[in-house]
Amino acid sequence: MTKTGRKPAFAVCLTCKSTQVPQTIVNMGDAYYSAPFKEVAATMTESIGCSDCHNPADMSLRITRPALREAFQRMGKDIDKVSHQEMRTLVCAQCHVEYYFEKDTKKLRFPWDKGTDPEQVYAYSQEIGFSDWTHADTGNAMVKAQHPDYEMSMGGVHQTAGLSCADCHMPFIVEGNVKYTSHWMTSPLKHMEEACTVCHRRGVEELKARVFYTQDRVKEALDRAGWANAKVIKALVAAKNNPRADQAKLQRAMALQREAQWYWDWVSAANDMGFHNPQKALSTLSKSIDLAQEAYAKVAEALGVPEPQLSREEAKERPAPQNQ
């Protein structure tokens, strides 16, 4: 990666993009993170590669990115004492996680101080008063989720059974008398015989149908949560400049919508459409819908009008409440 749309752009955006980053951090210290993107990118000639996950001396797995190691330290865990099987997931968790940049230093940090569930990560962001962006229409300070793949997998059926990311995404391949780990890090659906049928004996087509069924249910819930959040945003925009609106109640509605959108975004930003942990995905989206509905009711309350009760289909085009 040599370009980014961020303005100004900082070197922190390169952290998961080159094998040269770990040594650059050693050389520059924390000043690396806030250094100008273009200046540091100009020194990078290699993309990600073997040494990001493997020790060149003996090819053992290793952690090369400080943010993951520091997150474990804050949680009271020693990442150097985990099992080899756990390492087959943690080398992925160096990058495939939720993160944020510290405000002044731009240092990369994983917000796991309270835990890795979306509720715990949100509570942490509230505690430190963090926001990623400001909504252009509502003016609400929002938090943005970034591919929380490791976090979503935690507690899922495969993780609970002791499987690692590599077991499904980098399965063993046999060619003649040679057995090796695939480094085509892609969807297991692209190599189901090696990735899935080792444990699941029902056949590829039945397994694929099960995956799509699960993802379709999550997508339906994701869309419902999206519509619920969209109608609240529309209502907030209509109400925010209304002089008759109860501002305290509107602020409460804003807080509810901020949290509701976070839970929608958590599932939307993950790269599995809920498959890593369907129960967590659906419960998270349910929470988003409930909070969005509560926020909509609070907007109506702020305007002193009753909240209309509409069907799910009608809610998609639900008008914003108006002060009568």
Automatic annotation (TrEMBL):
Its EC number is 1.7.2.2. It comes from the Bacteria. Pfam families: Cytochrom_C552. Keywords: Calcium, Heme, Iron, Metal-binding, Oxidoreductase, Signal. One of its GO terms (biological process) is anaerobic electron transport chain. This is nitrite reductase (cytochrome; ammonia-forming). CDD domains: NrfA-like. InterPro entries: Cyt_c552 (IPR003321), Multihaem_cyt_sf (IPR036280). GO terms for molecular function: heme binding; metal ion binding; nitrite reductase (cytochrome, ammonia-forming) activity. It is found in: Cell envelope. It catalyses: 6 Fe(III)-[cytochrome c] + NH4(+) + 2 H2O = 6 Fe(II)-[cytochrome c] + nitrite + 8 H(+). It comes from Thermanaerosceptrum fracticalcis. PANTHER family: CYTOCHROME C-552 (PTHR30633:SF0), CYTOCHROME C-552 RESPIRATORY NITRITE REDUCTASE (PTHR30633). Belongs to the cytochrome c-552 family. GO terms for cellular component: outer membrane-bounded periplasmic space.
